[in-house]
């Protein structure tokens, strides 16, 4: 499978490095999945421990790649700051960061999570 969707000659060296990093990240995540399944299915404690160690090493490699992307490829830092190392409902973080339906206007962001408001304003005196 070709990893480029655009002519390689039209991509800068940095763009090609982005492709390399993203492909490596994909491969590391795939390896984590394989090792995790093997750990779950293994019955021998020693091989289970070895494969768990290998899985965890792949996690380290994936995170190193993510950190390089965060530092280098535009957009990653902001998205990571929104979602990583947070608590509560992960899907609600997008609304908190961008407002309803992906709005980026802070004035349209609506009520804060847990405020109890539906964000529809007062219905008093509407008749």
From TrEMBL:
Composition bias type Low complexity, residue spans: 106-127
Major place of residence: other
GO-annotated biological processes: intracellular iron ion homeostasis
Protein species of origin: Solidesulfovibrio aerotolerans
Protein name per the record: Ferritin
Coiled coil: none
Metal-binding recorded as keyword: yes
SUPFAM superfamilies, per database record: Ferritin-like
InterPro entries: EncFtn-like, Ferrit_encaps, Ferritin-like_SF
Chain residue ranges for the region called Disordered: 95-127
Subcellular location: Encapsulin nanocompartment
GO molecular function: ferroxidase activity; metal ion binding
Alphabetical list of NCBIfam families matching this protein: ferrit_encaps
GO CC aspect terms: encapsulin nanocompartment
